[in-house]
Amino acid sequence: LITASVLMGVDNCLKGIVEALEETGMLTNTVLFFNSDNGGDTVYTKGHPGNNYPLRSEKFAYYDSFVSDSRVGSSYHGLMHHVDLVTTFFSLGGGDVEALKTEYTDLDGFDHWSAILGDSTGPRSELVLNLPRSTTWKMGESKTDEGVAVRVGNFKVLINHPVDYWFSPSPGEDHHAASDMMASMCQYNFFSVDANDACVYSNFLFDISTDPYEKTNLWDDIGYNKVKLSVIDRVYEILAEQPTVGDTGKTYGQLIPEAYEKAPIDYTKAFEASGDYVVPWDCDVIA
SS3 of 203, please? Predict the structure, then answer.
C-alpha cells in the first residue's frame, strides 16, 4: 500500500536519526519533534484510503480525526496548537517567553515546555479551529458556508458542520465504505462548498474527555445547555476581537479566501507530475 510504504520510509529515516544521535552521545540531550499534518483521507488516495478509526470521520472535517494526533505512547494531553511551537521551543532554548511576547505583541502562542515535563498543567484552555468570516455572524446564519469549530476545555462545539461517520475496517455498526464518508464532499473548507442532496449539516457538542470518538452528541441535552451557550458566547467574543490586517480593513479570515480564489498557480500539476507525491515547492512543474 502506498500509505504504508511511505510510513515505513519515514520510520526508517527516524530510526537512522535516533541511532546516529545515540552513537554520538547526543540522544540524552536531544528533543525529537515529529509532527503530523492531519487525519487520513478516505477518498483522495488512489484506492488506498487512509483510516482514522476509532476516531470519527476523515481529513477536511473538524472531528478529532482531523485535528487530533492520538498516538500510542504519548503522555502529554494538554491542548496544543501549532502557534504554540515557537514559544515552546524558545522556552526550551532558555529564552524568556514573556519578554518575547512583549516585543512581538501579535505572538499569541503558549509555552508548554514546563507542562510537557510534568512540572505544571497545560497553559491552553481553548482551541479555535474554525470561525465564520463575518465578524457579526450569529447562530442560524449561512448554514453551509460559515461554520464554527471550537474546543473549550473538555468540550468541543461544531456548528453548521457536515454529519459524518466512522471508517471501521471491520464489519459492524461503524463500518462504512470510503465513498460513504461525507466530510471532503460537504465541508466548507477552501472557502466554498460543493454540497449536494447527500450532505447533511448539524450542530454538535462533545465532551472529548469522556467521548474521544465523538459518538454522543450533547447538543440537545438540556443538562449541557449552559455549557453550549457559554461556548457560543465565547465564539461571539472571539469574532468581535478579530483584528484587521494592515490598512486593508479586513480580518485575516476575510483575506485568505480572496487570496485562494486568485489561484496564481495550479498545484494539481505538481502532484500529477510527481506521481501524487509531495515535491519541493519551487520545482519546475509549478513554475
Answer: strand
